[in-house]
Amino acid sequence: MILFILTGRTPTILVITLVIMCYLAGYELWKEKELPFLWKAWWVLFVLMTNVVGFGIFWVWLLLRRRREQKAA
User: Fold this and answer.
1) Which string of DSSP letters, residue by residue, matches 9-48?
2) 9-44 per-position pLDDT tens digit
């Protein structure tokens, strides 16, 4: 989204990719039942604003969270 704002153009393939990344982030967050809604909304908006970099950060956070939960159980 930041790239779109800076350049003033929105190529169709990038918009489609951004929508898919937001959907995948939301889908994975849907599985996290104990996570509050505001955290879920924040992560989806973070992915929306930062595109691929935010999606990568989201997956690292999700991996660390799930690994920590497995060790606790």
Assistant:
1) ---HHHHHHHHHHHHHHHHHHHT-TTS-HHHHHHHHHHHH
2) 888 888 899 999 999 999 999 999 899 999 999 999
